């Protein structure tokens, strides 16, 4: 069985053990990256294609006459045409819940950094500002406690529930939004009602037609002045221009995002401007702990082992 991994460097930074995965195949070719123009040639003759973010459209899948299975080294499946795969007899699997601990840790790190003004204080200590203080300490930037604050969570899967658990340990009250476009669930709060009550809004829902621009200028107006927004879900759920404006005006006390609409932001982005106060932007790295990425390798291996036994493990089409 021949396999190709089209964008191996998006997963492995030369710090993962790939031995068991490679051992599943008689031939394994791992390409650091693959352009869309290279896809057809590289998957020709492969029985299994492993991909993280490279797109596999209908034409590419139809042209890969030997292809039997596609393994997505991530949870999102939007880069693979699932219907075209099914029409061509190709099963598609993904990886699930591998990065919960990593993402939750990242979300709480961003929340804590914002509330303690950690980045500003680190810079003040290093640039000489502290050395000029008239007393032993420097308290130029507001410090707030999470204890007693209200956290609103949009998207209550593994990630949202785990963030809620840790936030509760910090003494936060947690409100969970009703599923966007879904059935009403007892104990959850309509988003419009939730927005006005929360001190921190944390997003963990998928990007869909219903959640695109979910947190726009109108939604931010409904929030408390001085609230915070955390987005470790998907770019596009928060309107980036509206967020930048709300931070500049002081409507929001701070925000943190691990995601942007375009990644990487080769055409620039409103949230990368130098004049936006108390904003933390990280490069879609929340998922990327060594442990989480190794779990992806383990799940890929498990999927292929199941495929050999005729089992459908995490098949999505």
What key attributes describe this structure?
single chain; 317 residues; alpha/beta; Rossmann fold; 2 domains; 6-stranded parallel sheet; 5-stranded parallel sheet; 11 helices; 15% strand; NAD binding; NAD(P)-bd_dom_sf; 2-hydroxyacid dehydrogenase; oxidoreductase activity, acting on the CH-OH group of donors, NAD or NADP as acceptor; NAD
Number of domains: 2
Summed up, the helix count is: 11
CATH class of the largest domain: Alpha Beta
Cα Rg: 22 Å
N-to-C span: 21 Å
Protein name: 2-hydroxyacid dehydrogenase
Pfam families: 2-Hacid_dh (PF00389), 2-Hacid_dh_C (PF02826)
Keywords: NAD, Oxidoreductase
GO molecular function: NAD binding; oxidoreductase activity, acting on the CH-OH group of donors, NAD or NADP as acceptor
């Amino acid at each position: 069985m021949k396999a190709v991994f089209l964008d191996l460097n998006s997963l492995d930074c030369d710090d993962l053990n790939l031995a068991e995965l490679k051992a599943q195949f008689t031939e394994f070719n791992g390409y650091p990256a693959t352009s869309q123009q290279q896809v057809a040639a590289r998957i020709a003759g492969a029985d299994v294609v492993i991909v993280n973010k490279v797109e596999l459209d209908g034409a590419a899948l139809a042209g890969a006459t030997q292809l039997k299975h596609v393994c997505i080294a991530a949870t999102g499946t939007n880069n693979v045409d699932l219907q075209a795969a099914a029409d061509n007899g190709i099963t598609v699997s993904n990886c699930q819940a591998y990065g919960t601990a990593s993402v939750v840790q990242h979300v709480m790190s961003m929340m804590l950094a914002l509330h303690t003004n950690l980045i500003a204080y680190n810079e003040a200590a290093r640039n000489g500002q502290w050395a000029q203080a008239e007393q032993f300490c420097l308290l130029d930037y507001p410090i707030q406690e999470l204890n007693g604050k209200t956290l609103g969570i949009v998207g209550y899967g593994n990630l949202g529930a785990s963030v809620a658990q840790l936030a509760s340990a910090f003494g936060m009250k947690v409100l969970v939004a009703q599923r966007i476009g879904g059935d009403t669930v007892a104990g959850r709060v309509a988003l419009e009602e939730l927005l006005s009550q929360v001190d921190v809004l944390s997003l963990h829902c998928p990007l869909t037609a219903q959640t695109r621009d979910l947190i726009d200028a109108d939604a931010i107006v409904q929030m408390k002045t001085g609230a915070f927004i955390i987005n470790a879900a998907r770019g596009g759920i928060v309107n980036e221009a509206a967020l930048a404006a709300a931070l500049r005006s002081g409507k929001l006390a701070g925000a943190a995002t691990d995601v942007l609409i375009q990644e990487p932001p080769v055409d620039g982005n409103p949230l990368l401007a130098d004049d936006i106060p108390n904003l933390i932007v990280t490069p879609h790295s929340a998922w990327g702990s060594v442990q989480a990425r190794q779990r992806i390798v383990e799940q890929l291996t498990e999927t292929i082992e199941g495929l050999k036994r005729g089992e459908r493990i995490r098949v999505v089409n």
